[in-house]
Every structure is written in structure tokens, then in C-alpha cells.
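Lab meeting notes turned into a lecture example. A postdoc, R.K., suggested we walk through two folding results consecutively so the class can see how the record format repeats. The first protein's sequence and C-alpha cells come next.
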Amino acid sequence: MTDFTMKLGDDGIAIITWDVAGKSMNVLSVDAFSVLEGLIDEVLANDAIKGAVLTSGKETFAGGMDLNVLGSIRANAGDNPAQALFDFTMQGHRFLRKIERAGMDPKTNKGGKPIATALPGTALGIGLELPLATHRIFCADNPKAKIGLPEIMVGIFPGMGGTTRLVRKMGAMAASPFLLQGKLSDPQKAKATGIIDEVVGDPVAAARDWVLKAKDSDLVKSWDTKGYKMPGGAPYHPAGFMTFVGASAMVNGNTWGVYPAAKALLSAVYEGAQVPFDTALRIEARWFVNVLMNPSSSAMIQSLFINKEALEKGANRPDVPDQKVQKVGVLGAGMMGAGIALVSARAGIDVVLIDQNQEAADRGKAYSENFMNKGIKRKKTTSVQKDTILGKIKPTSDLNSLLDVDLIIEAVFEDPGVKAEMTKKVEAIIPNDTIFASNTSTLPITGLAKASVRPEQFIGIHFFSPVEKMALVEIIKGNETGDRAVAKALDYVRQIKKTPIVVNDERFFYANRCIIPYINEGVMMAGEGVSRPLIDHAAQLLGFPVGPIQLVDETSLDLGAKIAKATMAAMGDAYPKSIADDVTFWMVENGRLGRKAKGGFFNYDDQGKRQGYWREFEDKFPMAKDQPGLIEVQHRLIFAQVLEAVRALEAGVLEDIREGDVGAILGWGFMPWSGGPFSWLDIVGTPWAAERCDALTEIYGPRFTCPPLLRDMAKNGHSFYQRFGPQADAA
């Protein structure tokens, strides 16, 4: 069965249906592209066909192009992959332009055949670029549908005409949120902004009716008419000039200049706006290929699309029967427990929210109520949805309410004794086959499982805060954790629509193992007298969402002090003491706990808004006269994390480097443009990385010592994905 089929009606209208077998959403492959072009050629050549409607056999329209196609073209292009990618892109432009011109006379703009699109639901990426080339877009009134061009989120930009067409249709200013931020809209909002044309009950019927009545003038796009002027003004127009100056400032302000796709997109728009449409498409194609050839874009596609999708589909799931969660018991109704209850209820799972007393449990449920009220106020949800979700959450102090749950998530105080006591109490009540999960962020799961009578059913499910916003969930296997527990955790994470990584048990697991050195290195530099703005801005110029000094204020210094003291106790003489501990303990002693205390490395107003760095810090830790260079600071921050990721792989905490890369980006915002720590090492090369380790070790000490694994890979010139990627496993 082909992805596209065509059926000609008695009225002369061809209905072309897109339906990729075995996929929940249509994606465009090279072969399908050729099939569709053949059908369009038939529509244009057959006098019995008056026009066509392009639609989908699924509830959605399309989720974009199979990005593996681009990687395959590049890999099989020999010595000139850029030319191969450009030729492929221009082939797509010529085809979409064929649809757009629809056989009309190039001089008179007459004689074309109308081609409309009927969207039953979501249309993303090429799934919107293709409709934009047709003459009218009809969409079902489906509030769950998402319409947009999210390519920028995975390191590229719309390169099949979407960039040029959207800007010419809406103007650069109006198009910028959809192109530069990947904004998605529901059908009604997409119509209001001018992306689509009609929202109707039956889009196929409406599109067919329009095609039958369409006149020559209905087919001609505004940019193909004489005297066309871009909405909002072209770059050389006074209004347009200000738009492009502002857009450039916005891009650099939001991205700190580290994402090549955003800069390339802006260049394609700016240059394309000054030339005829077909030339603009060629410019778009050149900038698109420029991005595809950048190792950053390849790394982002690999991690944020291919690897992320594989993990979400269960790439590392044990081969056991379906473990879908029906009812979950959440122990602890604080911020974490309340957030877990919320995301579970939103996924349709019944929740028992337990706390010491009814009042505390009710406060936990109120967290969901407040969240839904904000959604209603912003028109992102409805009162009916709110009532449905709140109806799923039962707040109580009665442990007997857990008699029929199939998953427990414990989110009580981060103390082994407290957790052990709760484990014993709950296991005496719950069914024998219920999986017990601890939402601990630092305590080893194997140790916590000693309180369990069923350690094979004991596992860690580590959520990141705030639960409802963070996409990553870290699943931790204890020494005795069984396959069914792992499968249960993975199936649950899939239900709540988050991305899982599975790691083996060791103190701090994977994410915190890497985050803590990042924070410590920043605090250490501050204690050494390095300018705190330099430290934070160096991180932001690498693409981190916040610098380590700001981050420690957000997470609270007393938490850092507590972790440091617990680690000292656990490691004894092996603990690597540093000036970071001196700084942290001194700040806590002086009540500078961070944002929550309205005072940390920053000053805050009564609403918790930052008011600048706390100057008195320099009375205790004076700023050094000679400041290090930006690159030196950046290398310290990068290698502090990357080397821990390598050590985690070396120690078997990580079993899959894909989880290491995806987890780093989603868990703590590790340089998304790099694709993650292992992808970054592949970009810079293991020989250079090992050499830089030696230089940093000589200056700053053994924490930068090159791990044996990295040393061996550097010696042999290996890359991580060459040695540990899925292809290596298959071989």
C-alpha cells in the first residue's frame, strides 16, 4: 500500500488521501514524495479532473518529514553532501511550486486547476508547508489539533518553502513567533492569524465545494501578482527596516547567538524578501542546507528527534506484557507529590493523594485546582476538563485507600528513615503485585529497597521540579529491581507524556551527578574571585538556560549545603573538599539561602524578582584583579559536567548514550545546540577533549582528570556514537 492514494469522484474532483501504514501520524518519505508528485501530475494532465483535495486517512494530517531521510541523503552523498541536500531541497521546492502554479499560464495567471487541503487535525512541519502551497486550507474544528512549523525546536528551520511562504503571507513580524519560536496554534487561532483559511465541521466537503466553484483569481497567490508588497514592509521599507532590526535583536537576545538555525532562518527571510519569489526559495534552500551541514543541527536532530522519540517508544523497555497504570498512590502531598498527582490525573489515571492529615492532602489537591484555574484564565483548558481532572484525585490521610492501587510513588521527606518507615507501612496494605517507586533525587535506590519485602518491585522514579513543566523523568534500577518494575515505570511515564531515561543505581544517579559539578564549579569560581556576571553569562553564551550562580539561588543554597554534608558523611576522607563548600556554608550561615529567602547570590524584591548580585559577597570573597578569559570559564563549566557523564557511562550508571544526551538536555538544559554531552564530545573530537582535560587538570586539579574510557577513545580516534550508538549495538 502506498502512502498516497487518489480517488476521482463523479464531480471530477480527485481526493488524494495521505495515510502512512503502521504510523499514528503521517510522515513524508522520499518514496512517498515521488508518489504524490505522480498523482499531482495526473491531476494537472487529465482533462477529466477539475481539481483536487489533499487530505488524510488519519485523525491528524501530518507530523512532518522523516528526518532520517536528511541523514541518509547526507551519509550516502559521497564527497559532496551539501550538493546532494541542496538538490533534494530544490526538488521539493519545484514540486510544491508545481502545486502552487497548478498548470496556470505564466503570463496571464489563468487556466490552473484548483488544489485545496482538508486538514482533519494536526499539521506540523512539511505537513503544513505542503498545504501552504495549495490554494486554500480547510481545517476541522478540532481544538486538540496543532498547526505550526516547529522545526526550530530540533535545530533546523522550515526549508520546503514554509519560511518564504509564511513571511510573504503574513509579514516578517507576524510570522516570527511561528518560525523563530516554533509556536503551535489550534485551528481557530491559526485561522485568526492567517495561517489557514477556514475552520469547518467537514473540511473535505468544504474543500470539494470550494474547488468546484474556484475562479482563476482564487488560485493566484499574492506574491505571484503584479505589484505585490510584503505585509509589514520589506527590509528596505521604513517599517520593514525596523522589523528586521528588531528581529535580529530578538534572535540574539533569546538565543545568545549559539543556535545556527535561528540566524540562518533570519538571513533567509531578510535576503529572500528583497528578490522575486522563486529566487527567495533558492535562497531559503541554500540557508537550509547551510544549517543541515552544521554539526550542531545534526546533533540536535539526533538527540531531540530521533533519540528522544526512540526512548519515548520504549527503546530500552524490557520484554514484558503491558503495564499500563490504572490507579496510582502518591505518598506526600507537598510540591512534588502534588505535581505528580496533577500530571497523573491529566493522563486519566486515578490518584490517591496521601499525607499525614486531611488538611495537608487537600492542599496538595488544591495545587491541581490552582493550575487548572490558571489554564482556564488563559483559555488553554475548560471548566469541564478541570472538573474531570479534579475528580480523578482523592486526597486523604487514610492509607487503607491504597488497597487497590497498582503503582505507588513515594514523595515524602528526603530522609532514609522516613522513607523506610513509609515503605513498610504501605507495603503491608497494597496488593502483592503493586510496584513501589521512590521519587528520590539523591538517595541510592538499593539502600531504600532494603526496607521493602519485595525489592524486585522497588524502583526509583525521579521527577524534576516543577513536575508539570519538566519533560524528563529519570528511572533508577536498584540492584534487585526486576524487569516488570522497569516496564511499569516506563509505561507510566509514557502515559503522562514525558520522556524517560533508565539508569542504574549510584549516588546522585545521572542527572544530579552532572548538575552538581556544574553548580559547584560556578560557586568555586565565585569563591576564587571570578566575576559572578562573567560566570553566569559564560554559561548563557553556551546555551544553558541559566548560569550556575543563578541556578544555585533558584534551587536554594541550604539544599546544596545539605547535599554536601551528606556526601561528606558518605565518602569520608575520599570527599574532594573545595572552596565551593566554604562559600556555600558561609552563605547559609548568613541566611543567604537563595530566592526563597529573598536573598542569596542575588538580592530580591518582595515579589522574588532579582535585583542584581549581592555586593557584600565580595567583602568575604574579593573579586580577583586578573579575571580569566571567557573560553577558560566556559571550558571549566562544560568539562565539569561532560566528564561526569563519561564517568557515569564508564561505571555502568548509563547503559545507553542516547539517554545520556537526551537526559542532559531535558533534565538540566545542557547546551541543546550540542545534542548533549556525548554528541558534544563527538563534535569536538575525543583527541582534543582528552588533551584539554590534561591542560585543565594541570591548572585546576584532579577533578578534570581524563577518564580512562575517554583516554582510550582519544587514542583510537573513536567517537561515542561510533562506539556506543544504536548502529554499533546492531553490528
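The second example is placed directly after the first for contrast:
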Amino acid sequence: MSTYDKNMALTGTPPKALTTGQKIATVLGMSGLAILFLATLNVDFPQKALWLTIALTAIFSGTVWFSAAAYVNTSKGIKNDGVWFKSVSSRGVWAWMAGIALTTFYIVLYFYPQYLGLAEAGKNTGIIALFDPLSYLLSGNPASQWFVYGTLYTIAILAFGIKFIWKYRHNRYEMIRTSSVMFFQTAFAFLIPEFMSRLNSDSFSLPYYDLKNIWPLNYYNFERYRVNSMIDAGDIGLAMLIFGILSIFVITPILTYKYGKRWYCSWVCGCGGLAETAGDAFRQLSDKTQKAWKIERWVVHSVVVFVTLMTTAVIYSYLGNDSSKYWLTKNTFLLGVAGILTLVFGWVMLFKRKELQKDARYGAIGYFTIIIALIGFHYLNGDGNVFLFKSETLRKTYGFLIGSIFSGVIGTGFYPIFGNRVWCRFGCPMAAILGFQQRLFSRFRITTNGGQCISCGNCSTYCEMGIDVRAYAQRGENIVRSSCVGCGICSAVCPRGVLKLENGPEKGRINATEILLGNDVNLMDLVNQK
């Protein structure tokens, strides 16, 4: 007989013991992981296709079975019982062990793939060899560490995505957007690039292209070898190059204006997909302090500056100076970059400065000044360097610090310690750019009904981006934040239906407390406008 007292605490009750079904599911899933671990230790499996199928099926089935036992036979609604009592979801021993294991995996994956069996010449061994049959089936090529990672990544999003849908099945929005990230990861990030690789030949070759990745996430997309390969591939390659450019300057702003950054961060992005599904158990660990918020703003926008400088330097390095041979010369390109930045920040300062915090406004001006200064330094230092550094040095530095360490090792490995959106909050340049657009000219907002708020704190607790949602709800103020990814969990966990995700007119979207209190405005004019 259970000794737990029945109560109505919103934080939940201590977790119950695992059911028999969950124990069997755990053994099943661990058996699949055991096969992969043995392969990593160079245990030779004679029928690799069969053993790989057994391993992946066991991992997927075990996860789904465990999730079904936890949610399917319960009533609809958020079940966060025991989240602060479980070691793995409250920074306990199991959380640190999981974090260390994930971090170790990412370090080996990025920097020591030979220990996974990757062979520079000859046949693969270890776990990579185990994945060779699947890789040959899809692309006709032997597996790499990235194929192994992509397969496991996709399996995780699909399995934990089913868990997520069962958990939030009372909320139609959560079910649809989770199905969306499952589709985009499986089709656009995993299958389509592999099929494209199979179509390559001696006369036709396209680079590996995740179609849902947009600059600056795919910061490597405008490197010389990729641009040349797309141009050499004819109409298809040229269409892909044009699509990549249009994605930056046309598609992204339009979709963000209509739907906010959630169209990408919560519906399409693979990083966000893994965070929302496999990382759902850790969303309550995000830091909600003002200190974390200040660090987030400066760090993530510094990454944007870094990737802009690096990409500009890389493109500049392979352009020519002869205007009779090249329509896009080095000087024209630099002037174009400076011109675009001038237009963007000039528009912000002239028409949108009231929407920005004072320190963010000064930060934007400071970043713009730095970029202009670096371009000036280039002219003063001649053609030897680009922005005082070799372009290749900038690219390698960014790839190592941001592309590998931040997005992989820290961004995913630290889920159990810092929450599931560490990379999205502090490091993702795409999230920062979309957040800038969302804050300034998007129709998206989260509306609140302050009269219904009971200050339970569920919304703030489970906000993975560290936003104190309750503070907005208590004042009845719309939530318009650059960092908000529109996941909708705050609305889903609200017991009173206070929060609602909406797309509406820009006017009146930001109704700050200062205006509601009547500072420096005529309240009657404000009332008459409404």
C-alpha cells in the first residue's frame, strides 16, 4: 500500500516505483544500447544489418513502451509528478552521470572519431562499421561518424516525440508542432540528403545539404568548395544556392513576421526538435535569474557578430578584384555588407528604438561600430589579412568554439544540468537573428488574462528559455520577448487558461507596464485608442 499522502500540490508528488512494463521496457532499451556499446569496443557482429536492426528497434521500442506505460492509461493533462524528486531531472547523481556520458560521447564524436571505428583508408570498424549497411542502403556510401550521429539523433526525436505527444495530448498545438519537427528531422535532415548523395556521379555532384538549415546555422554553406560544387551541378545546384540566399533575406523575415520565430525554432529546427523531445524532462532547469538573462543577451549576440565576420571573411577570401571579370568583387562585397548593416541598424534606430531596451540598443550600435571598424582595418592592412585575421583561421575558430563545443558538447551534453535549451538561449545565432526580427516586427505574441492568474508559477517553471512568464501574466501584459521560441508549454501547463499564443496586428502588441501605469502618457488617449 502506498504511503504517499494525496494532496493537490501543483509541484506534484514523489515518483512511484516503476511498473513491470516500464522495467521490461528499460531492459529492452538498454539491450539495444549494449549492442552499440559492444560494437564501439570492436566486437565483430557478422550480420551487421541484422544486429543494427535489432539494436535500433530495441532502443526505439523500449523508449516508446516506457512512455506508454507512463502516460497512455492516465487522464489527459500535464503530468509533472515527481519532476523535482527524480535524480535525473533535478541535478542529482543520475543527472550528472547522464551529463558526463553525453559530453564524453560528443567529445569523441567531434574530435576522436577513430575511436568509433572511422577509417581514413580501408574499411570502417567498431560502431561505424555496424551502421555501414544502412548507409549503403540510403546513400551508397560507407558510414561516417556523422551518419551514425544523424541516425541516433533521428531515432531519439521520433521515440521521444511519441512520448511528448502522449504527455501533451490534451493540447492540439503541442501535438501538431511535435509532429512537424519529427517530419522535418526525418525527411529534410536525414533521408533527403542521403538520397541526394546517391544521385551524385562523376559528372554531377552536390554537397551534403540539410535543406532546413539556414545561415547562420549552416555557416559553411558559402565556403568556396560548396559554392563551386553547387554551380557545377547545373540548374539543381544553382537553385539550391539561390534557395539558401532567399532563405536568409526573404523567406525567414516573412515567416517570422507572420508567425514569430516559433515557425523555425519549435516547428522545423533539429536542435530545437531534440530539445523539445529528448530534453523535455529537463526544461524546468533553465535559469530564470536576471543575471542569466543579461549573460544570454550579450553572449548570443556576440556569436551573431562572430559568425557574420567569419562568413564575410570566407566569402571575401575567394572573390576577385578585377571588375571586368567578376560582377561581385571584393570591394563591392564589403561595401554591400556594410550597406546592408547600415540599413538594418539605421531602420531600427529611427523607427523601432522604443521597442528596444536601452542596453540592447547601445549593444546594437556597438556591434555595428565594431564591424565598420574591422572593415576599415582591412583596408589599412592590405590584402594579406581579412579583418586582421586569416579567413581560414576565423572559420576554424568558429567551427571549433561554436559549431562543436557550444552547439554539441555543451548544448546537448549539459541538458541534465542547465536545461534543454542551453544552445538555443546562449549560443544559437539563428535564434538570435530570428529573435531580433520577432521583437521588432512580428505579429506573434502571447496574450495574458491577468484576472485569471493564480500565481502558481507553472508557466515560469517550465519555460525552457528562462522567461519569468508569471510576472507578465500577473500584470496582464503581452509577452513579446526575443528569446521566446513559441513552444507553448507555458500555455499548456497553465491550470487556468491564462496564456494564449496569438498572431495579431503589430499595434498594441507591446503593452509595457510603464504605459499601463500611465508614465508620460495620457491614459484617456490610450483607452480611446483601444
